[in-house]
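Reply to dn_fold:

You asked what the input looked like. This is it:
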Amino acid sequence: IFTCQVRPGSLFHETEDATTFAFW
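and this is what came back:
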């Protein structure tokens, strides 16, 4: 899941965002 594609409004996506960002 990419943050750019997903809106940083959902808590679930927020968690994924942190993991993805850390991976990058």
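Residues 11-23 form the longest helix (13 residues).
Hope that clears it up.
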